[in-house]
């Protein structure tokens, strides 16, 4: 798998269903996320098994992402019409309901190839990318098809990036909002470990 961390996130334009239910023929990633943090997550297919649990997990945390000014964008190789049908299928019937974020239709597979998450079977692995306000990828994780991702971990990464941007300090293992950071120096490491090594 390619590592995109530290590189510019690949831009893309594709059909999509927006969070308000509007279907558009040319959703542009760079335009939609200009000056904002973004989470782009890939999943294999609509109307499958692990996927609805993940898409609902993102939807249930949309208020938290929005509070942090983060644009959330889901991508699969399904058409925008299939995305729309899945949004219009009740959760109790295996649908996802009216999720409040954009679902992009990567029918040509160009986006999952650009992010290097296409599996040998042609569908996308469960790739998640945190992209900063300048379009740089700051965090990525890619799960195999049977392994659902942890959306709370992505929120933690959003908070860690915001903390680093604001304070200039680095975030040690298990850091979460409200915890102390660490100065990126030998003295900073020593000071942090002298207080926190036992709890790591």
Neighbour order of strands in the largest sheet:
2-1-5-4-3-6-7
Radius of gyration: 18 Å
Strand content: 15-25%
Poorly predicted segments: none
Average pLDDT confidence is 96
Query: Structural class per helix/strand content?
Result: alpha/beta
Question: Helical stretch count?
Answer: 7
* Percent of residues in helices: 25-40%
Order of helices and strands: EEHEHHEHEHEEHH
- Principal-axes geometry comes out as elongated
- Describe the oligomeric state of these chains in a short phrase: single chain
Protein topology:
Layout (H helix, E strand, L loop, with lengths): L12 E5 L5 E6 H5 L3 E6 L7 H11 L1 H6 L2 E7 L3 H8 L14 E4 L4 H5 L11 E6 L5 E7 L7 H17 L18 H11 L4
Parallel strand pairs: 3-4, 4-5
Antiparallel strand pairs: 1-2, 1-5, 3-6, 6-7
Structure description:
The protein has seven helices and seven strands; from the N terminus they run E-E-H-E-H-H-E-H-E-H-E-E-H-H. It is of the alpha/beta class and 200 residues long. The longest helix is centred in the C-terminal third of the chain and has 17 residues. The model has no long low-confidence stretch (mean pLDDT 96).
């Amino acid at each position: 798998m390619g590592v995109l961390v530290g590189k510019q996130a690949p831009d893309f334009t594709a059909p999509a269903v927006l969070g308000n239910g509007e279907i558009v023929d040319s959703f542009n990633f760079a335009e939609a996320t200009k000056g904002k943090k973004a989470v782009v997550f890939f999943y294999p297919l609509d109307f499958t098994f692990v996927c609805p649990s993940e898409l609902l997990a993102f939807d249930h945390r949309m208020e938290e992402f929005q509070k942090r000014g983060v644009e959330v964008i889901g991508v699969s190789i399904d058409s925008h019409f299939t995305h729309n049908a899945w949004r219009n299928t009740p959760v109790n019937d295996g649908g996802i309901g009216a999720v409040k974020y954009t679902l992009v239709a990567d029918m040509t597979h160009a986006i999952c190839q650009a992010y290097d998450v296409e599996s040998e079977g042609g569908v996308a692995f469960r790739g998640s990318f945190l992209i900063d306000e300048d379009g740089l990828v700051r965090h990525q994780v890619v799960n195999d098809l049977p392994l659902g991702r942890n959306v709370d971990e992505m929120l933690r990464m959003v908070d860690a990036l915001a903390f680093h941007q604001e304070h200039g300090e680095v975030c040690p293992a298990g850091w979460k909002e409200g915890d102390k950071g660490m100065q990126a120096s030998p003295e900073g490491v020593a000071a942090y470990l002298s207080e926190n090594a036992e709890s790591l």
